[in-house]
Amino acid sequence: MPKPECLLKPRWKEGFRGNVDKFSGDYAKLVKGFNDTLDAVIGPLNVSADYVDRISKGNIPEKISREYKGDFNKIKDNLNRCIEVVNGLVAEAGMLTKAAVEGRLGTRGNVGNFTGDYAKIGRSDRTPECGCRLC
């Protein structure tokens, strides 16, 4: 029977789980509980990491539809909001580009759809750092 302290040694590898079959009784329950806890934490973290990676590369995924509990649901909601905003920016930029190509240079983006720095992208009344007016 392995000693319980061997469970605590830092030998972490991605995908590592304790082998429940090597234990019996309460030790097997402990290892199973530990494995289940890892799955419950690492699964949503991997989904989050994948989504952030994809968004950072311009590959905007569909919204996350799975329900999570607690803090992971907040992360999911925030990632979904990020997806909405980026998709909105892409659509707005596409609309403005099309209008410019068609000669409709008076067309402006709807800044009200965005907040913070995202709203700055669509404002046409900005004055550059130098103080001159470009339009």
Can you walk me through this structure?
The chain has 135 residues and is mainly α. It has two domains: 59 residues; 64 residues, no CATH class. 52% of the residues lie in helices and 0% in strands. It is built from three helices and no strands. Helix 1 packs parallel to helix 2. The longest helix has 32 residues. The chain is rod-shaped. The protein starts with 24 loop residues before the first helix and ends in a 13-residue tail after the last helix.
List the helices and strands and how they pair.
Blueprint: H1 25-56, H2 71-101, H3 116-122
Helix pairs in contact: 1-2
Task: Briefly characterize the structure.
The protein is mainly alpha-helical and about 140 residues long.
Keywords:
mainly alpha; 2 domains; 135 residues
Span between N and C termini? 78 Å
Tally the helices: 3
Structural class by SSE content: mainly alpha
pLDDT averaged over residues:
82
Shape: rod-shaped
What is the number of domains? 2
Could you give the count of β-strands? 0
Biggest sheet, in brief? none
